[in-house]
Sequence to fold (818 residues):
Amino acid sequence: MEPLLKMQGVCKSFYGTQVLKEVAFELRIREVHALLGENGAGKSTLIKIISGAYKLDAGVVTFKGQNINYGPKGAEDLGIVTIYQNFHLVPHLNVAENLALRQLTSEKGWRVDWTAVYRQARVTLEKLNFPIDPRSKVKDLSIARQQMLEIAIALSKRAEVIVMDEPTAALSRKEIETLFGIIRQLKADGISVIYVSHKLEEIKEIGDRVTILRDGRNVATLGLQETELKEIIRLMIGREVTASAWQEERPGKAVVLALQGVTSRSFGHPLNLTVREHEVVGVTGLVGAGKTELARVLFGIDRIEGGNLYLQGKEVGLVDPRAAVTAGIGYLPEDRDGKGLCLNLGVRENLTLALLAKLKQILLNRASEKKLVSAGMKSVQIRAAGMAQKVKYLSGGNKQKVVFGKWLEAGCQVLILDEPTTGIDVGARKELYDLVHRFVEKTATAVVFISSDVNEILEVADRVLVMSNYRIVAELDAQHTDKQSIVEHSMRLIS
Amino acid sequence: MKLRPEKVGGRARVSDLFGNQAISMLVILAAMFLVLSRLSPYFFTVGNLSDITLQTAVIGIIAAGETLIIISGGIDLSVGSIFACSGVVGGIVLQKTASVPAGLLATVLFGGVLGFFNGLFITRLRVPPFVATLGMLGMARGAALILSRGIPIFGLSSQYLWIGQGKIFDLIPVPTIILLMVFALTFFVAHYTRFGRFTYAIGSNAEAAALSGINLRLVTTCIYTGGGLLCGVASIIEGARLATIQPAGGTGYELLAIGAVVIGGTSLFGGEGSIIATLMGAILETTIRNGLNILGVNAFWHYVVNGGVIIAAVAVDQFKRRA
Fold:
């Protein structure tokens, strides 16, 4: 059978880094084709080429046997519609208006026939059996309903191929089943779906075939019926399976931070966790496993509803982040620019902010601040034009060092790092790992290092906690485990 | 896949060169003085120059507090009303107690109380600063009119009047001294106290500030309280200069005060701004009014010119940011 969409020898580079290396991909009619790969494997780039958002550097794309070369509008005209993770809906308009948006903006004339707009919306939604009121505002819809609306919009553009980027990331199990029902219906109606995800179980459940990308290459395209999940993981991460050993409790070392039966808004199932002196505890898991929520609990952003938190053996109630800072906890948020830094202030002001918040005196001793800052800049190796340079002009790596330095200046004993290396180049990553290791050499210090990058966790952590569905599902010794078993745990293949 | 090209200091250096707002303001002021003294022989006399500083005092002092508020990412539209209401309350206390210190203290403290309420509306009721202070603009004005029954307060003692009309060494007006003291103090607070540092941090990124352990509510409330206190100080000077306390006084002062801050290059987005540049901005506004007066331009035009200057100042600032 002639494939609907066929890509051959597709290459794409950004700033000299080759992200896609001669990738081949084909999509059949009435097929749900899963695209699988780790972060940075090239999934997003590939679908952006399919949707016309990126131009390819080399390679050939054919659609229904014809060579094509298009932009985003062109892709939709051909019938290839992409539903991105962050939806492209207008939140303050209602459902019918969003459905009619393309038509309204392309039509000439100034009059809008609202009766027709609402009638059309009702017909479209009824035909698809989507329980959505055409008059409700998009911002009031649940994520699942917004997704349905995106699918309805895609179909109203006469889509033949729908690309879905991580469609289940924010959905509950029940909503996922509804989505799968919709996808099966789409398939029955002759529409092909490209399904990007890293949730293996889902791919196995909904997909017909899978293409696995690793480091920008297509390592395999397989039928999902006849392939074992373990084999898929092996292809995805590129290493052989080895047995893993379980970590035992390490006696002797003092417990720096402990959670006992802690529940919160996000954690219905009680959490237990101990972090010992000189230890880097890696926390990993898929998107939506509850990693960031764990950080929020540890830093007092989300209130603890049940259970206790102990710091250096004493019970502490973290009512807000301020209490956490006072207690000696530091937090490097995932959204570095949005939550970690005062971008239009200088390195100096950012470095001493948490320290100043902890102090009690009224006056600011600028001379001693200057000394502290210049010593701090040296010890975390911030490369800046000077301590007055505004933080917004620094690179990602240097920005992160500023946030790290801020907590060092404040004399924190426990640091919580949430995805600290996103947007940071390899060299700066190594420097950050060094900083983390140097930090835990001090007495009574420990680090909780959260990352979805398993390689990174294995490199930096002493002990690995794997999270899934807001629970800690495995505790592994980083010396005696490997990527395979971590990934299997995070996908709940082992329990 | 996230790839960000490294940004090196090039842009930073360009903005540093133009960035010192206080210096470029000084250049503009000097140019204006030059032109005006050419146009009128009266302009560049000791008498007129000391008048300019005198006329700057009221708006300048209000603008000092407004600068900190705007640096923190907020805005205070109620300054004119707080100015009038604190004046009336102080005037009543003065009449009842016949004690000048009590009257002065009451004026300043009541300004602080109204500013404190602004802070509470913003931090406790989570009303955006624009709306909270717009509400206060109405309430404080109404209170001023109710308490005074709409009648100006006269009969201030000569001690009181000295604050607005006296001169030290027969040369420097007292309001000028107070103006300079207020700016010295505000500058000190902004740069040599933890509170000042937190003000900048909150304006730059309130969430990052809170996650660094800063008590957002306390600091924000203090910023607005400080703004209110300074409105009280300004009210005393104006009352003493005019020898009456007007319950309807201070109307439109928010425009002049915010104007001075903005002309001084403080960003309405928060986190950036200079106290000294606000002083220059206030002097610039007064100089324009003074110059137009001397040249015999109809007073109604002052508002038009002042409004135009505010827009021009921000437009130039935006242009420099893009450059």
In short: The first helix of chain B runs from residue 10 to 19. The longest strand of chain B covers residues 167-168. The beta strands of chain B are 167-168, 172-173. The radius of gyration of chain B is 20 Å.
